């Protein structure tokens, strides 16, 4: 008996492979990130108890429990510090420091500037980091400065849609506890304190702009030197996205590896010139240590932003593994790096950059290590680039809903170019800081950067359909990843034949069925409207939501991702109710990312006119307004009626005058099961006669959460409540999906109720 117990205890204490431990740790973190609410303390305590008893799976269970505990603890800290919703809109004077390189957008009309920056309050009663917007300011804002700001504070809240960008999750990753706008401001009398690294970065950016001017070369140089991307515009990011070169611009693992690699070869060569030094310390060991120090310095220059810190941890672990001659086991080194990152920042698992970086490094090791004979450098570089292009396709499709076929070709030139320019740029910056004689080198590097960008822009302009929008289901993505691995297996392995069908799974058409033959989804686009109507084989988009210059674009961030998630790449019809930005702003992005077959009401489509009608799959669609008379902007909105398994009325932004015409001309046609409230629930719409004529069972108000217009107005809500209509606000509920269930009854699914995670604000007005 004693021997059996001793054997059991010995097996319980056998070391477990670190890769399995990190896998268990990751499972614990991901489990918490999938929850709608954080687990209570009692559950966490019960989860940790099995790790205290010696049993065979104790180590793995302990790693899993550690992941759960760390993520839950960090999550609760964030929620406790976040600005509460019941204090939304409160105005306070706040002393603090500008804790980021500020983004500046000059406004041509007034000569003033719009600023956006992270603000670190000095008071512990406020969240540690605020995302602040300062509109129409005459002031020049600098990183590291102390300011006293009168702020209107807003609770964290963003749009929530299937497949759409999770703004609240993005704020979580950055540790932002509240949003704010500046109403009044004064510089602190006692001046600036600390933040010397941030101020050094600001001086470098200012020096670049002074020397290179307000040019794209200066913006690219600032991005590659100190990680400041505020000078790059949406059009620039589109160019990088379509050419697959975004990873080269924002400082991340690639940039750190380039700088560290350059330092390694330089230090190794220099150390080798002194034989006595090599006897005391081998040149390779010295170069490894020195390259690590240089990488830390570069990360310091980039402000230790979260992506840079994660990349630095991975790089330092790999350097340490090489120093102790263990790089022949790269997966073990990567496991250590992954585990450290998750323990340091469990929310990093929400970042696409983390997954892409580790996938890229793993792919490089997979292709380049373990070969029986060394390949020629150019052939190895080509093999690595091709494998990266294949292996990263599934991750790109999952995170970005598309891929670019240009990436492998452009990167064959862009990667070596940036690999040379980045160290040169840092050396030129250092030389210019010492003496102005280095300015020509800086200008030369800037010129090459500008020419490189023009090459990318030329590729985007002339390459046919370079960006391929798609969003395959998860099983297809996993099969595609498996297929990419199979392609690069050694010759003669029988499984290689399966690579083609596995990769082909990514291209299979996907179409989510429409139960009942008709469904409507009112997307949450903030204060705006975007409605998707589907029949069995057709798709209609009624409005595309708002878009703001150098800011949120509902067409790109919400509408297209949702449609691609449903397997829809073709729109049979796009109807733009009228030209206001909150309805038509996202149209350009929708056209760019989807195949739009026909349009009504847009500047390039047919005019919207009463009397037009058509049939899809047994569903009748008819336009009821406007007629040929002149109308105001809102009253000229298209009004669409849909009759099928249930009836829908989509009236755009019509107001009382247009409502009266509809009552006069189409009263019998107004009655509908589902109504989109006119003009987002404004008091100028939804008159008593109109509400009585429509008699909807369900009313959807497409209005932003606590919007400045007060939509939907209380009297309008009361009017619909009086007839017994169920009411939903997209800004509160997230996307609202309406269809018929198996019993034939109308069924409403709200996305914030169904799919929200614990960091998402609750569905409360």
Automatic annotation (TrEMBL):
* Transmembrane region(s): 20-38, 58-75, 248-271, 283-301, 308-327, 347-368, 380-400, 406-432, 473-489
Protein topology in the membrane:
Multi-pass membrane protein
InterPro entries on file: ComA-like_MBL, ComEC_N, Competence_ComEC/Rec2, Competence_DNA_uptake, DUF4131, Metallo-B-lactamas, RibonucZ/Hydroxyglut_hydro
Q: Which UniProt keywords apply?
A: Cell membrane, Membrane, Transmembrane, Transmembrane helix
Superkingdom of origin organism: Bacteria
Annotated GO biological process:
establishment of competence for transformation
Domain (Metallo-beta-lactamase): residue spans on this chain = 527-705
Q: Where in the cell is it found?
A: Cell membrane
Q: Which GO terms describe its cellular component?
A: plasma membrane
Name by which UniProt lists this protein? Competence protein ComEC
């Amino acid at each position: 008996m004693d021997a059996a117990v001793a054997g059991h205890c010995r097996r319980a204490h056998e070391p477990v492979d670190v890769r399995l431990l990190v896998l268990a740790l990751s499972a614990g973190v991901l489990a918490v990130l999938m929850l709608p609410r954080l687990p209570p303390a009692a559950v966490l305590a019960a989860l940790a108890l099995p790790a205290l008893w010696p049993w065979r799976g104790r180590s793995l269970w302990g790693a899993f429990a550690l992941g759960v505990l760390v993520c839950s603890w960090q999550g609760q800290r964030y929620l406790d510090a976040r600005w509460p919703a019941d204090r939304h809109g409160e105005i306070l004077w706040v002393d603090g420091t500008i804790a980021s390189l500020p983004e500046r957008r000059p406004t041509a009309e007034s000569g003033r500037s719009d600023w956006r920056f992270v603000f670190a309050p000095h008071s512990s009663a406020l969240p540690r980091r605020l995302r602040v917007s300062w509109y129409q300011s005459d002031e020049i804002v600098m990183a590291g400065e102390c300011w006293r700001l009168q702020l209107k504070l807003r609770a964290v809240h963003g749009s929530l849609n299937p497949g759409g960008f999770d703004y609240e999750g993005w704020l979580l990753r950055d540790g932002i506890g509240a949003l704010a706008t500046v109403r009044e401001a004064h510089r602190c009398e006692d001046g600036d304190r600390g933040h010397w690294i941030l101020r050094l970065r600001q001086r470098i950016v200012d020096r670049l702009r002074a020397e290179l001017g307000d040019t794209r070369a200066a913006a690219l140089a600032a991005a590659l030197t100190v990680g400041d991307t505020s000078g790059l515009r949406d059009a620039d990011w589109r160019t990088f996205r379509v050419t697959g070169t975004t990873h080269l611009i924002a400082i991340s693992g690639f940039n750190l590896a380039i700088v560290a690699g350059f330092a390694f070869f330089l230090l190794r060569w220099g150390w080798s010139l002194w034989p006595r030094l090599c006897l005391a310390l081998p040149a390779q060991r010295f170069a490894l240590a020195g390259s690590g120090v240089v990488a830390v310095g570069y990360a310091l220059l980039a402000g230790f932003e979260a992506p840079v810190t994660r990349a630095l941890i991975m790089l330092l672990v790999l350097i340490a593994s090489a120093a102790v001659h263990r790089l022949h086991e790269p997966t073990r080194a990567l496991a250590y790096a992954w585990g450290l990152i998750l323990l340091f920042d469990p929310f990093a698992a929400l970042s696409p950059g983390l997954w892409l970086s580790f996938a890229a490094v793993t792919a490089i090791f997979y292709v380049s290590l373990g070969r029986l004979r060394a390949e020629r450098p150019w052939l190895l570089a080509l093999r690595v680039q091709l494998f990266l292009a294949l292996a990263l396709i599934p991750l790109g499709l999952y995170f970005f809903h598309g891929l670019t076929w240009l990436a492998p070709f452009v990167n064959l030139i862009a990667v070596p170019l940036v690999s040379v320019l980045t160290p040169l740029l840092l050396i030129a910056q250092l030389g210019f800081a010492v003496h102005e004689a280095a300015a020509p080198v800086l200008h030369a590097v800037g010129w090459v950067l500008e020419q490189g960008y023009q090459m990318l822009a030329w590729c985007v302009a002339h390459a046919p359909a370079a960006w391929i929008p798609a969003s395959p289901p998860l099983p297809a993505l996993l099969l595609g990843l498996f297929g990419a691995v199979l392609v690069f297996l050694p010759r003669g392995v029988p499984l290689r034949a399966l690579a083609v069908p596995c990769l082909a799974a990514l291209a299979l058409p996907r179409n989510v069925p429409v139960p009942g033959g008709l469904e409507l989804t009112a997307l949450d686009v903030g204060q705006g409207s975007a409605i998707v109507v589907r029949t069995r084989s057709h798709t209609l988009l009624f409005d595309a939501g708002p878009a703001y210059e150098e800011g949120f674009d509902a067409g790109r961030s919400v509408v297209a991702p949702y449609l691609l998630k449903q397997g829809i790449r073709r729109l049979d019809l796009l109807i733009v109710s009228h030209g206001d930005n909150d309805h038509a702003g996202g149209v350009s992005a929708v056209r760019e990312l989807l195949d739009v077959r026909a349009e009504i009401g847009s500047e390039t489509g047919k005019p919207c006119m009463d009397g037009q009608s058509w049939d899809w799959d047994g569903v009748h669609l008819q336009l009821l307004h406007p007629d040929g008379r002149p109308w105001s902007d809102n009253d000229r909105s298209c009004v669409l009626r849909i009759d099928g398994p249930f009836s829908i009325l989509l009236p755009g932004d019509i107001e009382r005058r247009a409502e009266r015409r509809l009552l006069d001309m189409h009263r019998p046609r107004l009655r509908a099961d589902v109504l989109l409230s006119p003009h987002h629930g404004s008091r100028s719409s939804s008159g008593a006669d109109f509400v009585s004529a429509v008699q909807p069972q369900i009313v959807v108000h497409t209005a932003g959460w606590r919007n400045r217009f007060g939509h939907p107005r209380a009297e309008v809500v009361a009017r619909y409540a009086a007839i017994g209509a169920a009411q939903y606000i997209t800004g509160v509920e997230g996307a609202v999906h309406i269809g018929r269930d198996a019993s034939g009854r109308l069924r409403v699914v709200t996305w914030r109720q169904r799919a929200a995670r614990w960091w998402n604000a609750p569905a409360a007005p």
